[in-house]
Design goal:
With 768 residues, this protein is of the alpha+beta class. It binds a DNA duplex (14 and 10 nucleotides) through residues 53-54, 93, 111, 114, 227, 231, 234-235, 332-334, 359, 361-363, 365, 367, 369, 380-386, 388, 398, 419-426, 461-463, 566-572, 652-657, 727.
Length: 768
DNA sequence: GTGCCTCGAGTTCC
DNA sequence: CTCGAGGCAC
């Protein structure tokens, strides 16, 4: 960090003290000194902002920050002419004196599936009909409305009073912005004749005219203009001082709802009309359509109206109009089945590709990134874009087919860039006519650029990977970042930036997870204590050590996920934790299964070799034979076979994940790192699943004709209640739901003593 | 063997 | 958010 006062010993404390103790010296200040000090303040406050927002590592505490800001304002007041273009007083997103509270959404705020062309819309209609079991000719109405490009907000009313406003956040938890929402004219603070509990959801946005005027104000005050209306709206809503939000021209459209104490209407459109009657702004282009043709026609109409709307939209949203059908359709893991967003084509821009660089990820994957001459795409300046992998640069897809007409991408090329899903910049095309004469095809490295180990590409894989494992500093550091990430250990005050700093620290290196948990004792035994360093103090050092101690008790699933084993993500880690219950049980099973895992790999390789050699004649038999022989050669103990069978029998775990686990546990370096880590930890057993449903944890089989719902619907509903749905009756089956026309399964169930009920009985059981 | 659906991993910008 | 790939049902 650069010192605010030259010669200051580094801590933030001195800085704040200097600022607050001498407010009265300003009058006596020469303009030259004032200008210098404003310059220093701008710099140090900008750094504080950067530290707070990006690195998740506050450089100074809030009181210090506020004191500096006050001093800056006082000097500016005394010398208005000297106010800088980058004055901290005008910066948006100033470090808050207190953060926003968190709000857990009672009904999750989901995102929508995307459609990009007319065919996707027809497909959408088809899949809904098939899920509901509706014939093609049966009427099925949808609503269509513009998709506003703003930020979603959930407003909670109780007894007609606005009591809470929350941003979407990650869908489950958002930020409490109630005070700010109250300043938005379109948001009523009181409703008359509303249900007792009503959560209204909609979009906060800023019109083009208001955006232009706001930016003009910002600029004439020397502030930095917003990149686009969406950022302006987001920045304005997230002000900690609601009075600033009040001065920002925000608007709101209501289009959905969350928790309700009583239904708003029978249809989507009816509910929107009800919201409008309650006093909300609703979008006038919302319309009912009787099928895909009408939906597409309405899409075209909105597309034509788009330039004249006066606010940004990025597509059209279709929803099944009948709310009863919406309820039957329900949700996939992250999106509702009954709605889809038809996106407008992404904005494109051409720019020069200056350089192709290679990044190394935690799994060793070499990912090429395009360094671009900065260009504005969809209201944002883009200077980097992903190039996916070797094949993408070469103009091939995963199957060896051509993309971009087979054109490869070279340094120096003019390339077309777009933001996929309006977020991730990607290189879409190359202008060969502008290719410099000296441009050469990109030579994808065959060795890791970070550690020099060979970078191997397995047959059939898209990624080329560094083979250095933990020897590779890039991989080791990325693995550590993963270990402290939010879904894993989530240690407060130890984010990616800090991990990187600690990784290369000469006094207190953190090279592997275990090092994190020895940090406090090593610090105590060390002369170069953390507390004496620039940017650190007694308090911040203690806070870090305490935060680390807090995570010594850790849910088993987080521990497993944190290890960063390939193919084992958050969900697989939970599956494993739930299945084995303890670290020891899981580790023992994986160890025991090792010979079987090796046999499995040998069999795969043998089959692969055979496949390459053999042509179609009698191939299947020979493959099976080769597999069998390979397994036989391995002489797998029975215990290993059993452990392996259990591992791949675990819900959600297949041979690929199992093999990956096995390799990780059998790798001496990785295993040693685990063995050094575990003594510092107390893994907590997985929480038992909440058994609030009578079918939770039960295995259910449906057979015969279902009359009130389709097969897909029955399955999804059962699974959402925690049941497992299987196709065949076995000893493990808990319940058979048999409709008319059921055959052998009923008999088998009777033989096995499995309880059998009919469809009505099932609906009654699940309370419908 | 084929075709969903979901998960995992990597990615950018604020 | 997207892509590729794993898991699993049909």
């Amino acid at each position: 960090m650069a010192s605010y006062q030259s010669g200051a010993s580094g801590g933030g404390q001195g800085v704040a003290k200097a600022a607050s103790d001498h407010q009265d010296d300003i009058e006596a200040m020469s303009p030259k000194r004032a200008a210098e000090e404003l310059g220093r303040l701008a710099e140090v406050l900008a750094q504080a902002n950067a530290g707070y927002y990006q690195a998740d590592a506050p450089i100074m505490d809030d009181a210090e920050y506020d004191a500096l800001k006050r001093r800056n304002a006082a000097i500016e007041a005394a010398f208005p002419d000297l106010k800088r273009a980058d004055s901290p007083s005008d910066q948006v997103g100033a470090a808050p004196s207190e953060g926003f509270g968190k709000v857990r959404h009672t009904v999750r705020m989901l995102s929508l599936g995307n459609a990009f062309d007319d065919g996707d819309i027809i497909e959408f209609d088809k899949s809904i009909r098939s899920y509901l079991g509706l014939p093609r000719a049966a009427p099925l109405a949808y609503t269509a409305e513009p998709k506003i490009d703003g930020l979603s907000l959930s407003l909670r009313y109780e007894g007609g009073q606005l009591i809470q406003a929350a941003t979407r956040g990650n869908g489950e938890t958002g930020e409490n912005v109630t005070a700010n929402a109250r300043t938005i004219a379109d948001i009523p603070t009181e409703l008359i004749g509303a249900p007792e509990v009503l959560e209204v959801r909609g979009e906060v946005y800023m019109s083009h005219a208001d955006f232009a005027a706001l930016n003009e104000r910002q600029e004439s005050a020397g502030g930095k203009p917003f990149a686009n209306p969406r950022n302006a709206a987001a920045g304005s809503l997230r002000q900690l001082d609601a009075e600033i939000t009040r001065k920002r021209p925000l608007k709101f459209f209501a289009y959905a709802w969350g928790e309700l104490s009583q239904p708003l209407a029978d249809t989507q459109l009816g509910a929107i009309e009800r919201l409008r009657d309650l006093g909300f702004s609703t979008n006038e282009l919302t319309q009912r359509c009787d099928g895909p043709d009408a939906m597409i026609a309405h899409y075209r109409m909105i597309e034509e109206t788009r330039p004249h709307l006066g606010y940004d939209i990025d597509g059209v949203v279709y929803k099944v109009d009948d709310l009863g059908l919406q309820a039957r359709l329900g949700f996939r893991s992250t999106t509702p089945r009954w709605a889809i967003a038809h996106k407008f084509p992404a904005e494109l821009a051409w720019t020069e590709l200056e350089k192709i660089e290679i990044q190394v990820g935690r799994t060793g994957a070499l990912s090429p990134v395009a360094r671009l001459k900065p260009v504005t795409v969809g209201g944002v300046v883009v200077s980097n874009a992903t190039l996916h992998n070797e094949d993408y640069i070469a103009g091939r897809d995963a199957k060896g087919g051509e993309i971009r007409g087979g054109k490869d991408i070279r340094e120096g090329d003019f390339v077309q860039v777009y933001r996929a899903g309006d977020v991730i910049p990607k290189v879409a095309d190359v202008d060969l006519s502008k290719r410099p004469g000296n441009a050469v095809p990109f030579d994808f490295p065959q060795v890791c650029p970070e550690c020099g180990s060979p970078a191997i590409r397995e047959e059939g894989e898209a990624e080329r990977g560094c083979t250095g494992g933990l020897i590779c500093p890039a991989q080791a550091a990325e693995k550590l970042k993963h270990f402290v990430s939010r879904a894993a250990f989530d240690i407060e005050g130890l984010g990616a930036k800090k991990v990187e700093a600690f990784y290369g620290d000469p006094q207190l290196p953190v090279k592997e997870p275990a090092d994190i948990f020895t940090l406090r004792e090593r610090d105590a035994a060390n002369l170069a204590k953390l507390a004496n360093r620039d940017g650190w103090g007694q308090t911040s050092a203690k806070n870090l050590f305490d935060a680390i101690d807090e995570k010594r008790k850790i849910p088993l699933s987080r521990l497993i996920f944190g290890l960063g084993i390939r193919h084992v993500g958050e969900v697989a880690a939970q599956d494993l934790a739930r299945h084995y219950g303890t670290w020891e049980a899981m580790a023992r099973a994986i160890d025991t299964a090792r010979p079987a895992a090796l046999a499995h790999r040998a069999a795969d390789e043998a089959a692969e070799a055979e496949r390459r050699r053999a042509d179609s004649e009698g191939r299947r038999a020979r493959l099976a034979e080769a597999r069998g022989k390979a397994v036989a050669d391995c002489e797998v103990p029975e215990a290993a076979s059993e452990a392996w069978a259990e591992l791949i029998g675990t819900d959600g775990i297949g041979p690929v994940m199992a093999l990956s686990l096995s390799d990780a546990f059998a790798n001496p370096e990785e295993r040693a790192a685990m063995d050094r880590l575990l003594p510092h930890l107390t893994p907590l057993p997985p929480e038992a699943r909440a058994d609030d449903s009578p079918v939770a944890g039960k295995t259910v089989v449906f057979t015969g004709t279902l009359e009130k719902m389709t097969r897909a619907e029955a399955k999804a509903r059962a699974e959402s209640l925690g049941a497992k749905v299987s196709g065949a009756v076995s000893a493990k089956t808990d319940l058979l739901v048999a409709g008319p026309g059921a055959g052998s399964k009923v008999k088998k169930a009777a033989d096995l003593g499995v309880k059998t009920i009919n469809e009505d009985g099932w609906l009654e059981l699940i309370g419908q």
